[in-house]
Amino acid sequence: MPASTDLDDISFLGRLSEALSTTIEEQTRPLFDAAGIVVPVKSCSLLTALGQAGEASAAELARTLGQSHQLVVQKCPALLRLGLVTQHPDPADARRKLFRLTDAGHDQLARIAAYSDRITAVYRALFEEVGDVHGAILKTLRALEAKPLLDRIKG
Fold this sequence. Notes:
Arc Repressor Mutant, subunit A, 3-stranded antiparallel β-sheet
């Protein structure tokens, strides 16, 4: 049987998931602009996690977010340049850097919270149209954590 040439084929689920993420990011940016949110769209959860922690290292933030340390470290320079976070050495371990929100970062977090209230209603209406995408993604992630693709392909 020949390999599928349909790029929307189920075997390209990762590509489709990335396309959804990219579409959401592109469509969110103008909404953020209107709400005065300067945070990069894909850094909102990082800013939120830092706000909840008060102060944290990149490794701690990565664990909280379930992301790689490298990805968190890549997002931090933009937040530093925007003046939303500060970075300083850990007094207990000078090799470790700690991040903390600035006043501007707290302001952005408040704007994100207000935006989240509005976008939640939009997503709920979208899910009435297409089904609960959020729930399906969470369920899929949990299933893959419990039994990875390698185990599934073995049967």
